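Appendix C: a fully annotated inverse folding record. The material below is reproduced so that readers can follow the format used throughout the book. The structure is listed first as tokens, followed by the designed sequence.
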């Protein structure tokens, strides 16, 4: 009998992947975790039935959640990553020699343990000596962290249902603002603009971020296994503008080979379709 993983992208649209094997399934304290293997996407895992990471297209998400900010401020030294239990975001960050410290605050220790076992490709750099993995609610961490400390905060969260809900609140964004340095940047995964359910959350998150940060823009990437394939990230900062302050001459000196991100794409990613600009109230 054929096995298929199916995710509801909208009330009327479903996305399916043919499965070779179910490798693991459990209910953790916070969410249901499923790990599956497929011919097309390699191994992948879902939380509460929603796609998180596939071996085939994770490079797109992780390139785009890390490198645009690093090209805008090459002096980033202290980084906070919230969520991101698979380790892919940390993997990309550790490629920068200039980064001194990465605190990764993930609420669910089971996600980290299972990814270490099943996804060495994303989790391998969690052992880097600059990385401090903390199993705790990110909401609590940003409330208690020192003010004016982090140069970059990356919110690599689940969707705004379940444990990820608070990571889309004004209070959370305000606390992020407080603990960022004057040149600080906040990057968040900002959902999809296409299907209504996701577009509503995308817009709500951007509205709140714009109430807190003087500079706040959305940028996009094509991620085949996320709803509609069209995904947005938020770039917010106190001072630095992603288009004006990007310094790719310096960024290229890092000598990083990236499979998705490049200097031309950096600018293209911020050029949003008209319907998305309208959703964001930018036209
Ligand atoms: N790339 C993924 C996506 O957008 O589908 C996100 C991946 S990452 C696995 C998301 C992580 O955020 C999960 O492991 C989840 O446990 C974590 N998370 C959710 N709420 C959290 C919170 N309040 N504090 C810290 N981590 C949280």
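Designed amino acids, in order:
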């Amino acid at each position: 009998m054929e096995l298929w993983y199916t995710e509801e992208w909208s009330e009327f649209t479903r996305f399916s992947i043919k499965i070779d094997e179910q490798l693991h399934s459990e209910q953790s304290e916070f969410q249901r975790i499923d790990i599956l293997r497929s011919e097309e996407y390699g191994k992948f895992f879902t939380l509460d039935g929603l796609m998180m990471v596939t071996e085939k297209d994770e490079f797109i998400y992780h390139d785009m959640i890390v490198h645009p900010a690093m090209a805008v401020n090459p002096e980033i030294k202290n980084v906070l990553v919230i969520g991101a239990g698979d380790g892919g975001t940390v993997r990309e960050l550790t490629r920068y020699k200039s980064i001194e410290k990465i605190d990764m605050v993930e609420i669910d220790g089971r996600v980290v343990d299972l990814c270490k076992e099943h996804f060495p490709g994303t989790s391998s750099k969690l052992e880097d000596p600059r990385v401090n993995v903390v199993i705790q609610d990110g909401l609590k961490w940003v409330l208690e962290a020192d003010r004016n400390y982090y140069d970059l905060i990356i919110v690599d969260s689940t969707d705004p249902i379940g444990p990820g809900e608070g990571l889309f609140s004004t209070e959370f964004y305000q606390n992020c603002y407080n603990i960022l340095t004057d040149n600080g940047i906040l990057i968040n995964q900002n959902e999809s603009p296409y299907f209504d359910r996701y577009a509503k959350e995308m817009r709500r998150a951007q509205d709140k971020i714009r109430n807190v940060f003087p500079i706040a823009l959305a940028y996009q990437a094509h991620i085949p296994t996320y709803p509609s394939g069209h995904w947005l990230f938020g770039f917010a900062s106190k001072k630095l503008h992603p288009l004006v302050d990007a310094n790719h001459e310096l960024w290229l000196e890092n000598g990083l080979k990236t499979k998705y991100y490049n200097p031309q794409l950096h600018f293209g990613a911020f050029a949003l379709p008209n319907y998305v600009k309208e959703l964001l109230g930018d036209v």
